[in-house]
Amino acid sequence: MHKPSANFQLSFSTAGKIFMLAFLVGLLAGCQVAPAPVSTWRPTNTSGQLSSSTPPTLYAQLDSSVFTPTAPLFTATSFPPLADLPLSEISYVIPLTLQAVSEDSAVFLFELDRPAAGSLLLRSADQAEEFVQAFPISSSTPYQFFTVAPLEADREYEAILALQADDGAFKQPAFLGGAWGSVRFRTQQATEPLRVGVIGDSGFGESVTAKLVEQMAGEKLDFVIHTGDVVYNAGENASPAEAFALKYFRPFAPLLHQLPIYAVPGNHEYAQDARIDGVPYYYHVFPPLLDSVQVDPSPSERRQYYAIVYQNIQFIFLDSQVFFGEEGRKEQDLWLTQRLQDDQFAYSIVITHIPLFTSSVIHPKDSQPVRQAWHDKFAGAGVPLVLSGHSHNYERLVVDGVTYVVTGGGSSQLYPALNIDPNSQAFSWSSHFVLLELFEDQIKILAIDKNGKILDQAKVPLP
What we know:
- By secondary structure, the protein is of the alpha+beta class.
- It has helices at about 15-30, 205-215, 240-250, 255, 280-285, 330-340, 365-380, and strands spanning about 10, 55-60, 75, 85-100, 105-110, 120-125, 130-135, 145-150, 155-165, 170-175, 180, 185, 195-200, 225, 260-265, 275, 280, 305-310, 315, 345-350, 385-390, 395-400, 400-405, 425-430, 430-440, 440-450, 455-460.
- The strands form four sheets. Strands 1, 2, 3, 4, 5, 6, 7, 8, 9, 10, 11 and 12 form a twelve-stranded mixed sheet that branches. Strands 18-19-20-21-23-22-24 form a seven-stranded mixed sheet, covered by helices on one side.
- Helix 6 (about 330-340) links the parallel strand 19 and strand 20.
- The longest helix is centred in the N-terminal third of the chain and has 15 residues, at about 15-30.
């Protein structure tokens, strides 16, 4: 596993404890917090250190040594709306995004165009007493990946990266010349159903993709799965970083501002023009997840294949490019066998870019090695649902009790059918996304096109 180079450990607490501690700090230190204009807001109370009885921590991959800074306290009366912070002259390369969310933690990533001092500002968004907690970032590295914990389950939070200027004022980094704003997210909840959006092969930066994303953002999803080919034709852009900014971060912004997107690498992620120093830029945007949100430690130094758990449902993300020359096939197969044999979960859903079955006129032969290697494993382990992309269309097939959903219609570049597979239950040549509702006893599948039309609906019964 790729280990973080240093840990920040900061004091934190629940809202009730914060209120009491803030009151005591004010009495003891005699600190008065006065409102300030948005354009010149500065922290005015930095003397409060919260109790460490249940300390949340911010674990960051940084170049600096381990230290424990004081956690500043700010009340809502002195702090402007987080999303309204003025713009800094420093810009995002990768905007602040959620990489993962659990019941009690959130994993963030960002990259700036240069190192800067500042803090991740975090507040509970659904409480009357809205206190803002500041977690200082490293001023020595522009790329930072960290976990904030513990948080409370099924609670909405708001976070923003605030950079501190020489005069002490906080400003937010710019992204593509404008404000990225704050990220509002909810920690995992235990109530059914789990609502998951699925989209794939979206990476052209088209308006139809933005339209599908807007629809998905209104569905009150818990998270989104991307079935690969996040970005196409990176060579059209000045760099892979620019390609991801224009073709992923910008069209997916409505979703990235509220939830994590879990992806698998597609064949275009491995293209030569999508690499920096020989490494796919994809792995820079989707770094290895940390242990707090993983089923087990990351099996490799890259997020090539991994598993996450929501509501006792295991989601297994696989790299199908190992059948086409990429390294890691033997290691992934061993890991997959172990994951499928783990019976602690209600059931497992598998995600892979290349489909095991497809009726598509394009890439029909790509499925053969993937099918030969994995179908019997999935059927033998009782996997109820496998999600994939690669074929730019929608299709639902049922083979040996396994439901295969191909959802590669995240753009306008679509593939018709060649010959409909005898196992196919539905096929549509349309731009679309898929909505899953996951229950203990069934999975509901809804395919929705760019105009909101239902293309297909089905139920997968579970034992």
